[in-house]
TrEMBL record:
TM spans (from-to): 12-37, 57-76, 83-106, 218-243
UniProt source species: Gadus morhua
Keyword Electron transport found: no
Name this polypeptide is given: Tetraspanin
Domain of life where this protein originates: Eukaryota
Stretches with biased composition (Polar residues): 295-305
Compartments it resides in: Membrane
Gene: si:ch73-139j3.4
Gene3D superfamilies: Tetraspanin (1.10.1450.10)
């Protein structure tokens, strides 16, 4: 395969990898934004340094991935060796950063799980009841209704709720804890609460569901990091081959320039050269023609000794007097 064809193949493959890299980078950035700013997930209410480190790291990695993908496309298109070197350096830095994030997430999963348990307990304590529900209250109701669970470890966790503690009859649960229509509670409780005794409420706590949900999300993030790391390794390999091909092309062009002779500034040109039969060469040929003229047919004096005729006449003159 010719060198130009190799460069075009590497450019095409690197462009495809950069497109996939861009998609994965956008996914990582979206995952970070979901953890940091979405009020509809439990992670938003967790106060954990480890989780904040993971979320902030994913956000930074997502932004860098978008920038590096653009740099890689420009480097492949322009065949710029300096840009290719920067591209490979940034890829290596991103790989190290992603490995660090994955390591923190895997080693800190128990701490994050404990922080999540504390967040759920606090959500149960501050549940608003019949008053205006907050985003956390709606999230807790959605969790219990969807996963068919009640409380973190069981229905008894709701006895810590501040609103229920102020009721005369504290044997009530939120309507999200029932698998049927919410029964009416005694004492005129708000419609979001119902009597728990003998009214088909969920007896399983939500802790196991929350743990499984957290493990699935952590596994998703680690799988995304692993996929993007594999792609980054492939990008580095293609960038190295493209860099070598571009360097070889530059060396070939440089050797061709050195092999081409520089034009002689003192050379009068082909029209003025005598050895090539130029214009002036034809006119001046009589002055340097080595062949003497034929003396017998023309009667011209010998071109090699123009004084020979005069010498002959001089000898005859001398013979007349001697």
């Amino acid at each position: 395969m010719k060198l130009e064809q190799k460069i075009h193949v590497f450019q095409f493959l690197l462009t495809i990898c950069n497109c996939l890299y861009l998609i994965l980078g956008a996914s990582i950035l979206g995952c970070a934004l979901w953890i940091l700013f979405d009020t509809g997930n439990l992670l938003r209410d967790i106060h954990s340094d480890e989780l904040e480190t993971v979320a902030g790291g994913l956000f930074l990695v997502g932004l860098l991935v978008l920038a590096v993908a653009a740099l890689g496309y420009a480097a492949a298109h322009c065949q710029a060796r300096l840009m290719l070197l920067l591209y490979m350096a940034f890829l290596i830095v991103l790989i190290l950063g992603q490995l660090f994030i994955s390591l923190v997430l895997l080693t800190s999963q128990k701490k994050i799980e404990g922080a999540l348990d504390e967040a759920v307990d606090q959500m149960i304590i501050s549940y608003a009841g019949g008053r205006d529900l907050t985003a956390s209250d709606r999230l807790l109701d959605e969790l219990q209704r969807t996963e068919k669970c009640c409380g973190r470890t069981g229905p008894d966790d709701w006895k810590t709720n501040l609103y229920i503690q102020n009721l005369t009859n504290q044997d009530v649960l939120p309507c999200a804890c029932f698998n049927t229509s919410c029964p009416s509670g005694p004492g005129g409780e708000p419609p979001l609460f119902g009597a728990s005794v003998g009214n088909d409420s969920y007896q399983e706590g939500c802790k196991e569901k929350i743990t499984d949900w957290l493990a699935e999300n952590a596994l998703t993030i680690v799988a995304m990091d692993a996929s993007i790391i594999i792609l980054q390794v492939l990008q580095i390999i293609l960038a190295v081959y493209l860099y070598k091909a571009v360097s070889q092309q530059s060396r070939v062009k440089g050797s061709r320039v050195l092999m081409e002779p520089e034009p002689d500034q003192t050379d009068p040109g082909p029209d003025l050269r005598e050895d090539q039969g130029g214009f002036y060469g034809e006119e001046n040929r009589a002055y340097w023609d080595p062949e003497p003229p034929h003396t017998e047919s023309t009667g011209y004096p010998n071109a090699q000794n123009p004084y020979a005729e005069h010498e002959r006449h001089g000898q005859g003159y001398n013979q007349m007097y001697y």
